[in-house]
Amino acid sequence: MTDAGPPGLDKEIHHPTRLTVAAFLSSCAEAEFSTVRDYCGVTDSVLSKTVAALEKAGYVSVRKGYFGKRPRTWLALTLPGRKALAGHLAALEALAGAARRAGAEMPAAEMPGAEVPGSGGGGGERT
Fold this sequence. Notes:
By secondary structure, this protein is of the alpha+beta class. It has 4 helices and 3 strands. It has helices at residues 16-25, 33-40, 44-56, 79-105, and strands at 31-32, 60-67, 70-77. Strands 1-3-2 form a 3-stranded antiparallel beta sheet. β2 and β3 form a beta hairpin.
């Protein structure tokens, strides 16, 4: 796994399209290229580039064959890809959890938009 900023985030999976492809493939043994493309809502070209990057990292395997007389391409998330995805998702959850805890511990007076007592920002009447 390689870092993309905070510890544990994987730069090969961090991009939204790569993350979507990996997450989709994590739920099945393999999927046809066109099914993944349609789910991700991307073009053939975008998915090809995404798959090439994930394949280079060892996270996706590509199998070509025929269904009848028609050529087909199937994609599968490899074991290293599954481990990388799990680690990346755990790192994202840890990052979000730490941010939520930090926000919950912030004193109300330090929160953006909080009114500081005596700042004259109150809506009281003047006499």
